């Protein structure tokens, strides 16, 4: 008899974050502006993120994949812009993050770097681009810095990849280590499952210790129990970033198309929708089509005369 324990391998899988099933948008409120000591920083560096943790402050992080969106997020004060391998889903329309390549990601990194004046630009190393060896990891990370203009890279990692992280850091490239649920290991992990329950909690802590020792400047914790995330945040000096890991982490990150309602369908439990861009764009496109079909657009003010 199998008991329904929380840490059972048969525990319910979370909804895949990029399903196409429609889901109605919920109403949101806009919070008052909150001041931060980071507001006075002209250019966000990894040291500033560490200082935020030391002061007990928070910082924000969003995915970003293009020049104009980078300008908006940068102007809004977002401290870190992540060009994630989630571009495979949200830009290229792939079913998972596994198929996106370095050559596909580098132009997106370059676009975000061009649109950002203040934010730290963080490039994701895609599946297959660093796992083979520490030297492969250095070579790939170097390309993102030289060709993409990134300021740091993110690697989905475990203690096994500590030497890969160490090699990249020794090459002068800051590394954010991504632990907990790692989408590139979706098949090995048995799907989209929350990590840190039962015996897996010790492994995540061991991974965190090994990667911090290897020189990672930050830890990203995805779909990890809030208690484990809080313990890691308290135990290590480096700032942690959460996505589905509770509120104890120094930073928080979301995929921007989820956070601002551009992509509809099933979303992970941790997503909060701050805007409904899907409806705004849909209504704008319908209005444009209607005016073109009716002849209202272009009007005289949109026309050049001889």
Describe the structure.
Helix 2 (67-76) crosses helix 4 (102-115). The radius of gyration is 21 Å and the shape is globular. Strands 1-2-3-4-5-6-7-8 form an 8-stranded parallel beta barrel, surrounded by 7 helices. 34% of the residues lie in helices and 12% in strands. The protein is built from 10 helices and 8 strands.
| Secondary-structure content class | alpha/beta
Outline the biggest β-sheet: 8 strands, parallel, barrel
The percent of residues in helical segments reads 25-40%
The strand count comes to 8
Q: What characteristic shape results from the CA principal axes?
A: globular
In what order do the strands lie side by side in the largest sheet? 1-2-3-4-5-6-7-8
Report how far the terminal alpha carbons are from each other: 85 Å
Mind telling me the C-alpha Rg?
Answer: 21 Å
H and E order: HEHEHHEHEHEHEHEEHH
Strand content: 5-15%
Query: Overall pLDDT, averaged?
Result: 89
Number of helical stretches of at least 4 residues: 10
The low-confidence parts are 1-11, 18-29
């Amino acid at each position: 008899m199998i008991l329904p324990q929380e840490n059972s391998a048969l525990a319910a899988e979370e909804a895949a974050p990029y399903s196409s099933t429609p889901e109605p948008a919920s109403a949101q409120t806009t919070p008052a502006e909150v001041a931060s000591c980071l507001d006075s920083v002209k250019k966000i560096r990894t040291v500033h993120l560490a200082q935020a943790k030391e002061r007990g402050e928070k910082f924000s992080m969003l995915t970003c994949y293009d020049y104009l969106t980078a300008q908006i997020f940068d102007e809004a004060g977002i401290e870190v812009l992540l060009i994630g391998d989630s571009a495979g889903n949200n830009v290229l329309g792939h079913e998972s993050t596994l198929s996106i390549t370095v050559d596909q990601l580098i132009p997106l990194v370059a676009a975000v770097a061009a649109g950002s004046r203040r934010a730290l630009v963080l490039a994701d190393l895609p599946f297959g681009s660093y796992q083979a060896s520490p030297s492969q990891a250095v070579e790939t990370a170097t390309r993102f810095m030289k060709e993409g203009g990134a300021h740091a890279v993110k690697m989905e990692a475990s203690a096994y990849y500590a030497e890969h992280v160490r090699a990249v850091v020794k090459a002068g490239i800051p590394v954010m280590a991504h632990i907990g649920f790692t989408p590139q290991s979706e098949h090995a992990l048995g799907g989209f499952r929350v990590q840190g329950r039962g015996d897996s909690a010790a492994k995540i802590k061991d991974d965190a210790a090994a990667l911090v020792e290897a020189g990672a400047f930050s830890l990203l914790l995805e779909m990890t129990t809030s208690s484990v995330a809080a313990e890691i945040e308290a135990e290590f000096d480096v700032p942690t970033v959460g996505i589905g890991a509770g509120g104890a982490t120094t930073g928080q990150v979301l995929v921007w198309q989820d956070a601002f309602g551009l992509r509809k369908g099933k979303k992970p439990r941790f997503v909060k929708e701050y805007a409904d861009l899907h409806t705004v764009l849909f209504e704008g496109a319908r209005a444009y089509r209607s005016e073109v079909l009716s002849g209202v657009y272009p009007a005289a003010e949109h026309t050049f005369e001889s």
